[in-house]
Amino acid sequence: MTAELEPLASLAWLVEAGADEAMGDIPVNRFATAKAVPKAEPSIEFSRSPPPKKAIVPTEGDPIGSAVDLARAAQSLAELKTALESFDGCGLKRTATNTVFADGNPASRIMFIGEAPGRDEDKQGLPFVGRAGKLLDKMLAAIHLDRSRAYITNVINWRPPDNREPSPEEAAMCLPFLRRHIELVNPEVMILLGAVAMRHVVGKTDGIMKSRGRWIEYNVSGRMVPVMPTLHPAYLLRQPAHKKLAWRDLQAIEQKIASLHPA
What's the rounded Cα separation, in Å, for the pair 107 and 43? Predict the structure, then answer.
């Protein structure tokens, strides 16, 4: 699903984020290198993908072991989605309407990871489609991205009741799928949206306000990938004054993407 860019909404986001001053009389294209980002390719239609070639028998009485086995056996994103939908070890699945896997274009290799689905995401089966998702679309537009040029998923694939924070046990059952998800996407850059994503992906517990805006690294099959923790869009809806901090992070992210694809 490719979100339509709304110029006025994007401009409003930039103004709220503090980008409200022109720096010269002659316009300068400061995003010239951004055109070197890989050309958008059609998003993968996960729902029509074939099941895994090899059936995996769940490990009796060990849901985390079963999750590890199922995730490891997946050789494509389509197989991973099918494996995740067949996994019954996490109690969250019993109260959820849909399994929320991902949205966007994995070929972009620009991967955003959030926390867990909310009500709208649970209904539609896609990540970031509610109010926080609309803000995320504006944030992407501010650095010349959209869902055809980025890939979005969550740590947790089922909505926790009342949108509560997932427990450590629930996260542990989803993490084997997320780690395999990252391996299959093989991203060039990852953006972690919020403290929960930061804690479960890279193990940092310092707090998002202390860690945001600082590049760290994540090992993907022996290759170190740059990772940027930043503020979750849902947090920015509650604390709009902090949009200026998110804007700084977004600028750093765009510069990093441009540096990976020099003109």
Answer: 8
Cα torsion 190, 195, 200, 206 to 10°: value is 110
First and final C-alpha spacing in the chain = 28
The answer to whether 228 and 253 have CB atoms below 8 angstroms apart is: yes
Beta-bridged to residue 111, according to DSSP, are: 151, 190
Express each pLDDT in 50-90 by its tens digit: 444 444 444 456 899 999 999 999 999 999 999 999 999 99
Class of domain 60-260: alpha beta
Lowest mean pLDDT among 39-53, 62-76, 132-146: 39-53
Enumerate residues 6+ apart whose C-beta is below 8 A from 110.
37, 145, 149, 150, 151, 187, 188, 189, 191, 257
Query: What are 198-230's pLDDT values in tens digits?
Result: 999 999 999 999 999 999 999 999 999 999 999
Domain boundaries, the chain: 60-260
> What is the DSSP annotation of 115-137?
S---HHHHHHTSSS-SHHHHHHH
According to DSSP, residue 143 is labeled: T
DSSP state of 91: T
From residue 108, how far is each of 31, 259, 263 by CA, in Å? 18, 15, 17
Q: Are 67 and 177 in contact (CB under 8 A)?
A: yes
pTM of the model: 0.81
Q: Which amino acid is at 18?
A: G
In sign, the C-alpha dihedral spanning 144, 39, 132, 113 is negative
Q: Per the structure block, which two tokens stand in for 198? A: 């930061």
Let me know if 1 is exposed, middle or buried by CB neighbors in 10 A (0-12, 13-18, 19+). Answer: exposed
What number of residues does the chain have?
263
